[in-house]
Design goal:
Pfam families: LPG_synthase_C. By secondary structure, the protein is α+β, with helices and mostly antiparallel strands. It has helices at 11-14, 30-35, 79-89, 99-105, 107-110, 129-134, 141-153, 170-184, 193-206, 252-264, 280-288, and strands spanning 4-5, 41-48, 51-58, 66-67, 93-98, 114-118, 124-128, 160-164, 214-220, 223-232, 237-245, 270-272, 293-295, 297-302. It has two domains: 4-123 and 298-302, Gcn5-related N-acetyltransferase (GNAT) (Aminopeptidase, 3-Layer(aba) Sandwich), CATH 3.40.630.30; 124-295, 3-Layer(aba) Sandwich (Aminopeptidase), CATH 3.40.630.30.
Amino acid sequence: MKLNPITPRDYPELQKYFENQSHALCAYSLSSALVWKNDFYRPGGAIDGDALVISGEFSDPEKQDYLLLPVSGERRYSPGELRRLARRLDFERFSFAPLEYIDAFGSSEFKRFFDIVERKKYHDYVYRTENLAQLPGNRHSKKRNLINQFSRSHEAKNRTLIEPITPGNADECLEFLDLWCEERDCDVNPREDLACERRAAENALRNIDRLGFRGILLRIDRTVSAFGIASTLTREMGALHFEKAFAGIKGLYQHFDRECARRLFKGLTYINKESDMGVEGLAKAKKSYQPAMMVKSFDLVLKS
């Protein structure tokens, strides 16, 4: 078994392994895994019987290469099988192991072979779709007020339009992304999370019709001012991978976030809005939407 680089061209062949996958961490979205490839990070893949093994390798020696848990709709690898797989592929760790997987076999069984390391910055925030689509109750009253302000200043005056992202309008989203990144100095350090996320969003937009993504954009006075891109993660959960809106327009983000919940996650009970990556401001914003649960993420580090 050999790991080979994987690219968006491999999506049709690899997607079958994800049809019944049950991991609730966004790392287990094939669509997302493929678009994060850049000069500093390379995803790889190998077939192990009825399972797909995905790796993440970095050019930066200070970052740690890893494997994801094997993806299979048919079976789960035991801790002993994971140890053999890691040794076979010459990797020291599995990253993004959800707590539910560890609990299924028991932490004591895992500790026979691995050190279990909690990765709080990669815990995913998960929300009930109906709550984000409706924003009910007093706890969301400030957000509803902001939405009402945006509606009066923009919607009521017919200044807004929401439409699906397609190859025909993806370039406009890319132009918007350039402006959004100028607001935040995304490219100060090309190795930092914001710069890497920008390249991933660009890859997603360029492959919007090829990788199982679905997306919407919002125009104000015909100009793209927000976009969101999602995919299906499990049978009852979708992931909102990218959501961008101009910060200077009052109520725009709150309005657009609600529209993403209403339009991109029909038939799905939960929305995974990914992790806060340890960014305090991002964590505060995600917590303000009252997550239904946090999906905890762990590294399994092979014992010597």
